[in-house]
Amino acid sequence: MILPHPETDFSTNILVVATDIIKELKHHKKTVLLEKVMQSFLNKDIKRTPDLFIKSLVFLYSFGLIEYDNYKVKLTPRTRKQQINLFE
What we know:
about 90 residues; Arc Repressor Mutant, subunit A; flat; about 45% helix
């Protein structure tokens, strides 16, 4: 079990801010300019930085939750694929 430091500020935790980005992208429902999402992200809390925004986007992209194309991002549609065999 992961135990955070007692003085950890969860408002700057990547998992927490990534959920805020997901909520923002759900609000738009289509592709949206990266700059618009970042501006909304930075306005929510003074402790948030552009560096934290980029790290959160990389986190979301690495798990396949967002798509990026020409400075625009959108949520990846959720599809349920049943894996029949581990090697397929």
